[in-house]
Amino acid sequence: MNDWAKYTGWGKLAGLLVVLPVVIYSAAIRPNVELRRTVREQAARIETARQDTLRQEFPAEREDEAGHEIRTGTILHRLTPAMERFEVAAERYTPLPLAREADAELYAGELVLSGGFIALTRLLDEIERHPPGGRLVSVRYAAAADPQTRKKQLQMTLIFQQITPNEPL
Known about the structure:
Blueprint: H1 2-57, H2 69-72, H3 74-86, E1 89-100, E2 104-114, H4 117-129, E3 135-145, E4 152-165
Helix pairs in contact: 3-4
């Protein structure tokens, strides 16, 4: 009986060093790790779905869309490299039909961009030097509060106009 009593201290020490961490991990840490993994997978799925939606809303520019940049939204594809270079974000883009006649339509596109003043002004200079399609008719700067962070951000609203033939795409 005395021989077993010598080894109980070692058994308790092994239980503390091996069994206790396994029990703590399985009871407290594992659910958090699984939840974090699930959140990451869902975020990746949402980002993939968002990218697919953007591709469907603004398909790649085609040759038969020449002259329809504002109506089809391909103006955004043409501006994307410059927007990335100057670190400017597109808040929204809205194409609007203004007038329609027998052989032509007048479209206006409102593009709202956000970023720093210097970045927005450099992008405006790039747009004036290399027009992406349509004619730039109005520029407006405004400070707006971001609804998520409640911080003020500078926004630039550009309005483009384009006359397009009245034939279907």
